[in-house]
Amino acid sequence: MPCLKVRTSVYLMKIEIHHKDSMQVEGLAEDFKEIIVDKLKTMERFQVPITTVKVEVVRESNPRFGKNNHNVTLITHGSGPFIKSEGSGKSNLKAFDQAIAGFELQLRKIHEKKSDVEHKKIHPAE
Asked: Between β-strands 12-19 and 52-59, what pairing exists: parallel, antiparallel or unpaired?
């Protein structure tokens, strides 16, 4: 099972990339792997601890799926929250963009819940 360990400025994130046909990454393009790493590195801005991200890339050969025959699933494991996001599209890149958008939305929600909001009481005028 191939995995990439990426050191961000705060956390060490392990990225596991799985391909449906074989458990090896050789079936994927090098530039696509670099895009995966770069986009997941930008998620550190939400300051949510994520230790492992599992990226599953599947290409359906069934013609009934039509144009959306590429699926990408992002799943987190580890000490941080559990997040799962899926995307489908014409290519691996389109499917990954859709999955990373949902992933980012969930991370943003978690980050905003963590931020401390001060609610000041409104005193009625006397």
From this structure: parallel
